[in-house]
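dumping this here so i dont lose it
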């Protein structure tokens, strides 16, 4: 089936398979119980399947959408066997993910056009935001790009220090100021530095204080406005980092950030440590924002470009 063409390297695919192992085991065990003793997909099987998807953190709205599509197929083929259910489920999830257009990202490649390409990264503390930035910088550097990091989360000294450690580890410059400095000023300096170095990409870390959405909105708006004095159409991407292990709570968190700023892509971290990998399906569908990166391990290379074909293949791999 061409939809599931293999485009990952063997090593990356194995890492993805391992990262989704807990989710896959959980889904398959629940699915087996849902169809136990049944030979035909009937109303009871569909009810059980609905429970499987919801408890796998796919989300109620997305689950109902998937169940509705399977019901249509059952109506067309009234003798649909339970042995076919796995393939049908895989097919419908793949289609659903394809409806959120994030393009066909295969590797860490920047779009053609404006340089430096500016990525503003948002997310609350503890989701793996700074680690994601460090891993992203590493991958871009390996792809041959010149990278500059901006430590605009000046609310916490630890955030500045952590980004500095990543900059040293990866071998890329980190533009920073003291704790309590104006975040917009740091972002301005980072873009100026990137331009003077002829850098390809600037990644700006920001504070994520959701307890005061008005302040967050004002801060992010100011950072954008100041960056545009250096690069008129910055940022080119607003990447929201979410902790995949929190399941549907990540969806609610995303909605809060979407009220504060325009989010263009998602990065889901800590997928390997949870059985809640189904949130990748639900969050993309409910928010209609593409998942661009997923974290499937603690290693520096374990941040992967999200590929829906490979994700579904790994999730339903026997």
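and the seq i came up w/
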């Amino acid at each position: 089936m061409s939809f599931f063409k293999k485009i990952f390297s063997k090593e990356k695919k194995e890492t993805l398979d391992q990262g989704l192992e807990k989710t896959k085991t959980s889904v398959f065990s629940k699915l087996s119980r849902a169809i136990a003793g049944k030979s035909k997909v009937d109303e009871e099987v569909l009810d059980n399947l609905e429970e499987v998807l919801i408890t796998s953190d796919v989300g109620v709205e997305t689950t109902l959408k998937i169940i509705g599509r399977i019901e249509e197929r059952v109506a067309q083929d009234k003798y649909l066997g339970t042995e076919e259910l796995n393939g049908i489920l895989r097919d419908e999830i793949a289609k659903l993910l394809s409806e959120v257009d994030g393009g066909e990202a295969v590797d860490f490649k920047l779009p053609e056009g404006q340089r430096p390409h500016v990525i503003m990264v948002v997310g609350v503390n503890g989701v793996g935001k700074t680690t994601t930035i460090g891993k992203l910088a590493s991958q871009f550097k390996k792809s041959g790009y010149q990278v500059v990091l901006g430590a605009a989360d000046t609310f916490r000294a630890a955030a500045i220090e952590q980004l500095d450690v990543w900059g040293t580890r990866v071998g890329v410059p980190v533009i920073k100021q003291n704790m309590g400095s104006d975040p917009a000023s740091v972002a301005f300096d980072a873009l100026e530095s990137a331009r003077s170095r002829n850098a390809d990409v600037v990644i700006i870390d920001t504070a994520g204080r959701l307890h005061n959405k008005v302040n967050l909105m004002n801060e992010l708006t100011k950072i954008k406005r100041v960056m545009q004095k250096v690069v008129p159409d910055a940022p080119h991407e607003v990447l929201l980092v979410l902790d995949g292990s929190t399941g549907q709570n990540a969806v609610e968190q995303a909605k809060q950030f979407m009220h504060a700023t325009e989010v263009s892509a998602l990065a889901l971290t800590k997928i390997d440590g949870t059985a809640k990998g189904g949130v990748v399906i639900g969050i993309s569908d409910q928010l209609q924002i593409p998942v661009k990166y997923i974290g499937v391990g603690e290693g520096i290379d374990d941040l992967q470009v999200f590929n829906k074909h490979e994700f579904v293949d790994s999730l339903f791999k026997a």
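The longest helix spans residues 60-76.
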